[in-house]
Specification:
alpha+beta, Nuclear Transport Factor 2, Chain: A, 2 domains, four-stranded antiparallel sheet
Length: 161
């Protein structure tokens, strides 16, 4: 009888944890926030399809897709160092987890290009955190033509906090 009561108490405790977490955050405690980062990119109507594809490819370590998207970049500008960016910022290679992606600014320039600034927040993997790793914020600048193709891509800066 005591075992059944203890089991019921444990089940009620777990149910209350799940319910509290769901009502406070809108997500269950076992739900991965990986999809929320992907959704914040994919569901942003102000980002062009090429910018979305490039950011997701960077996060997911997809060199081929990044290079495919970069084909529209103006050849007279300095090309992005795609391999270096993957080493520094992809989740697989840099041992980081993307936690948030935010469009911080968007403006149409007189020449018709659309300038977008995108902030990517990352946290180090648990093994890096144990060594004193900190949160990183990276700022990207994209210039896209009216059709949404990337004309220019700049790594602006990163900072740790």
């Amino acid at each position: 009888m005591h075992r059944i009561a203890a089991l019921l108490a444990l089940l009620l405790l777990l149910a209350s944890i799940f319910a509290t977490s769901y009502f406070v955050t809108g997500r269950s405690p076992v739900e991965s926030d990986t999809n929320s980062v992907r959704d914040s990119i994919v569901n942003n109507p102000q980002l062009s399809d090429d910018v979305k594809a490039w950011l997701l490819s960077l996060r997911d370590d997809n060199l081929d897709r990044m290079v495919s998207v970069e084909k529209s970049i103006n050849p007279s500008t300095r090309p992005p160092d795609t391999a270096l960016y993957l080493l520094q910022f992809s989740e697989a290679r840099a041992q980081v987890k993307w936690t948030n992606v935010t469009l911080t600014s968007i403006k149409t320039a007189p020449d018709g290009l659309v300038d977008s600034y995108v902030e990517v927040d990352m946290t180090p993997s648990p093994s890096i955190q144990a060594q004193g790793g900190t949160r990183t914020v990276v700022l990207w600048h994209f210039s896209t033509d009216p059709a949404g193709r990337i004309y220019l891509l700049d790594y602006v800066s990163s900072r740790t906090s």
